[in-house]
Amino acid sequence: xxxxxxxxxxxxxxxxxxxxxxxxxxxxxxxxxxxxxxxxxxxxxxxxxxxxxxxxxxxxxxxxxxxxxxxxxxxxxxxxxxxxxxxxxxxxxxxxxxxxxxxxxxxxxxxxxxxxxxxxxxxxxxxxxxxxxxxxxxxxxxxxxxxxxxxxxxxxxxxxxxxxxxxxxxxxxxxxxxxxxxxxxxxxxxxxxxxxxxxxxxxxxxxxxxxxxxxxxxxxxxxxxxxxxxxxxxxxxxxxx
Length: 241
Fold this sequence. Notes:
Layout: H1 3-20, E1 32-34, E2 40-44, E3 48-49, E4 55-57, E5 61-66, E6 73-83, E7 97-107, E8 110-119, E9 123-129, H2 137-140, E10 145-147, E11 152-153, E12 164-172, E13 175-180, E14 183-189, E15 202-206, E16 208-217
Antiparallel strand pairs: 1-16, 2-5, 3-4, 4-16, 5-15, 6-12, 6-16, 7-8, 7-15, 8-9, 9-10, 11-14, 12-13, 13-14
């Protein structure tokens, strides 16, 4: 085969591949800052501090948000240590192990979730929880969830006991990008589903033991003490969501 023929064949293969597997847009990720424990408002469960200032959670259910409003980007660098000693079904009745990020967390009834399922399924799941006029778990329970489909997605690695991973979510306008272990695994537009939602970033775990670091975009200044929550609903204790 002549060199010109080889070059033409190579170009054709590359073009065909790019049409089948479109490239992710170039990254525009924000710089994130590590969030200390005293900057978190824990609304459910317990989050402890280890000797190296990493955080730990062993309670079957944990929820937390930043004490200041933060931005629209967050990251969890975690090591999964296995199931918690006791387990607690979700409000829906499902038994699931997972870790994830909360965005625009107006309250426990109205927010955006980016969750990494560990068991019984293994995947990245994005959902918006909307319950207009409600703000407490007693009012909304497990109602109002809408699962969001990605425009482009790929499978994240399976999380196994002892393994370490990084989950990140970046929200620009209505466009959400999720990366797992540095690889973009979910991207899509949320449209009008976030209209009217405003609140801090946060995190959530269910029925799983983790050591982790939580980072947020422009949320914490090293020379500035964390501010108190902007409203009682932001830091109110809750049974879970």
